[in-house]
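Researcher: Quick test of sequence recovery. Tokens follow.
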């Protein structure tokens, strides 16, 4: 996306000298990437002390075992279901000689 922005010349010169940027565009894009990474890093720091990590050999063996079980479960054939027709089939009804409720019969 093409955008025109006003950037402090001294700041741009310092950034260009400190980094191996060939163009101003490269310098600006790297700065934007740095800001994006910083937000992710701050999110990770917010989780500090909230996650439990077990780096023992037993924990790794258990994780491998659980992963193998998941792979076996994924390889099992899927259950097939029978799909019935959505149209309802009606049973033939006996013709009723009675009048429907709420209607009067026309008998002489």
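Model:
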């Amino acid at each position: 996306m093409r955008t025109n922005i006003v950037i402090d010349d001294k700041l741009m010169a310092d950034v260009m000298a400190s980094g191996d940027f060939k163009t101003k565009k490269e310098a600006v894009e790297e700065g934007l990437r740095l800001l994006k990474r910083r937000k992710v890093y701050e999110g990770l720091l917010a989780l500090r002390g909230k996650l439990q990590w077990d780096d023992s050999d037993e924990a790794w063996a258990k994780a491998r075992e659980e992963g193998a079980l998941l792979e076996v479960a994924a390889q099992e054939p899927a259950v097939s279901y029978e799909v019935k027709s959505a149209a309802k089939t009606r049973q033939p009804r006996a013709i009723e000689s009675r009048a429907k409720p709420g209607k009067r019969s026309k008998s002489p």
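Residues 24-46 form the longest helix (23 residues).
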